[in-house]
Amino acid sequence: MANKTGASAKKRLARSSSNRVLLGVLGGIAEYFNMDPTHVRIAWWAFVIVTTLAAGAIAYALVPTVLTLLGVAYLAAYLLMNETLGK
Hints:
With about 90 residues, this protein is mainly alpha-helical. About 65% of the residues lie in helices and about 0% in strands.
């Protein structure tokens, strides 16, 4: 693409003024990569949902483990304190 002086213009990543839903960010990405903005929006929301579910699954797996380890540590500390205090 050439500008008025004949030099080629650099492609610039910017928010879209025509493909806007909220702020035009995803529309700007779609324009930069010459894609359909709907596909970019669908891909964005799929990414958000998958990463949120993955984070939830990791937390769901880690919380019982952490709570079990804390319970064992508490029990060990309780038993050691009782033994140390002579009870």
